[in-house]
Amino acid sequence: MVALGGGHGLAASLRAARSYAGDITGIVSIGDDGGSSGRLRSEIGVAPPGDLRRCLSALATDDSLLARSLEHRFEHGTLRGHPVGNLLLTGLAMASGDLQSAIDEVGRLVGAAGRIFPATLVPVTLIADSDHGTLAGQVTIERATGIRNLRFDPADPPVPGEAVEAVRAADQVLIGPGSLFTSVLATAVVPAIRDALHQTNAQRIFIANVANDKAEARGFGLAEHVEALVDHGIKVDAVIAQPGSSTRRSVDAPVTEVDVAGADGWSHEPTKLGVALAELAVGGTGL
Predict the structure, then answer these.
(1) pLDDT digits over 138-172, tens only?
(2) Pick from 206, 176, 194, 173: which is nearest to 21 by CA?
(3) Which structural domains are found in the chain, ordered by start?
(4) Would you call 244 exposed, middle or buried from its count of C-beta atoms within 10 A (0-12, 13-18, 19+)?
(5) Residue 257 contacts residue 233 (beta carbons within 8 Å)
(6) CA separation for the pair 234, 47 (Å, rounded)
(7) Count of alpha carbons within 13 Å of 65, Cβ hemisphere only?
(8) Which is it for the CA torsion 94, 95, 98, 99, positive or negative?
(9) Strand-by-strand arrangement of the 133-136 sheet
(10) What is the pTM of this model?
């Protein structure tokens, strides 16, 4: 099973996958330019580590002090706002000169139940057209409306070969949930990954958001989300959506409506999501 995306949404997919998949790979956008990740990126020039950290936390064992500490944020001083995991990944990447080695080492230390790859080997700047003209940067794009034609600077960034091969060889590829343009498409439309999605025989599943309050996709229903994927060259074989998400507009893929919402009403509950994904795997290509 391969999961694509970023942030909290991808972490939920990875936690869900632990309940049924024997081989798990996460491919994570590193286009972030806000928060702790943005500070480290601008001040030190490193790849933004935040979404990588969240995914390692999602796959980590619970019986490790380090695993439980990755998400701890400093509350005072010059480190205020930085999670321990961001600093650990940054330090290891700087010391080794290799981001993937840093990711793999943290994964080993926390007993990760799978492997994590950055979607690109270099930090990228997200670029998109909008109702207000051309925009650059994740934070700027996620606050805008009328987003379309997401792309990158550099336009065709290098991608880890093992990540591409994982997509090609997968039985199931999960796309989402998460912010449509700045997390989901920010990973899936990286040219080499998009090509691998075309070439794979995997069951490609789009996991729709439980709730949608991001400006970048405000007003989008399920059909509009799937259309945005298609407009960017991403075809899916199945969709998982919260009951009531479907509209009168047709969706260009079979839709499974199932309750996968967490108690907060906006996130996915990994156990519920895992059951739904496992049933699709059995009914589709199987794992």
Answers:
(1) 999 989 989 999 999 999 999 999 999 999 999 99
(2) 173
(3) 1-29+119-126+146-287 (3.40.50.10680), 30-116 (no CATH)
(4) exposed
(5) no
(6) 26
(7) 0
(8) negative
(9) 133-136, 125-130, 148-153
(10) 0.93
